[in-house]
Amino acid sequence: MEFHFRLELVEDISPWGQNPPTLGWFGLTLGWFWIEVDGEELFRYSPGILEHWSRLRPASRPMLLPYDHYPVVRYWEDLLEMLPAVLDPLPGDLAARVADAPGWEDWQRRARRFQEASQDPDSDEIYDMALRWWGCRTWGACHLAHPPRLWLWRVGESVHLRWDNRDLLVDGRPVWEAKAGERTLPVSDFLDAVRSFDARFLAEMEARVAAAGQNWSRPGIVLDQKHLQWEQQDRSTWLENALTRSTPDSSWDEIRAAMTVIEAGNRGGDAFP
User: Fold this and answer.
1) Mean pLDDT in the chain?
2) CB contact at 8 A, 138 and 148
3) pLDDT tens, residue by residue, 120-168
4) Which of the residues 112, 118, 153, 212 has the least number of beta carbons within 10 Å of its own beta carbon?
5) Cα dihedral 52→15→145→83 (10° resolution)
6) Domain boundaries, the chain
């Protein structure tokens, strides 16, 4: 497993705002991101959707790579945000539920129907308690119009990755090249991949910040050199902070109790197994 990225050339990054136009650390991370797992590329657009978009927007700038063009730091932040939950092992009973991918998807659909149909004023809170732990292990990528469906969780000394993008279509065309799959790797290998991504990304940004401080060749764009250096230093602590941060999960007993309430609330033909 490897987290890949490529940064855009600094001279090709558009500034933010107009009075005056500026660029900060976040904006300077503009580029492309993808994940490689056993030859599969997650976050890679399908050839069909790329061809479709090029026909719809013939005058737009051609896509240099088949990935979204966005600040790479957003993906880095998403990964670090979910890292404590991913590294917190699931209890055996919940791990068994998740292992059955179709059954687990069905359980979540029924839970949503419970939330929507229940007359209980606490139904939203119950639903949130029952599934918050799974949401914490879901890669958000909310900046994307059609974010891929990707989950990461730990069972024992293994990290599981699952993706299922088969229902993500635009005008009948699949958005993502990786349709559906699941891989398992040792926790140590996963952490090695995370640390490698963090080190490579921050090293490239450190070089970019240093170069901008020595010779900023775009005088019409304001660059706060002091703040760039401060943010570079601050970001260098984020991974270790994530590795020592406690997970947001409530007690597993409370989660199980909420799931039991949802199951009991689904009656008749929509009852849980």
Assistant:
1) 92
2) no
3) 788 899 999 999 999 999 999 999 999 999 999 999 999 999 999 999 9
4) 112
5) 130
6) 2-270
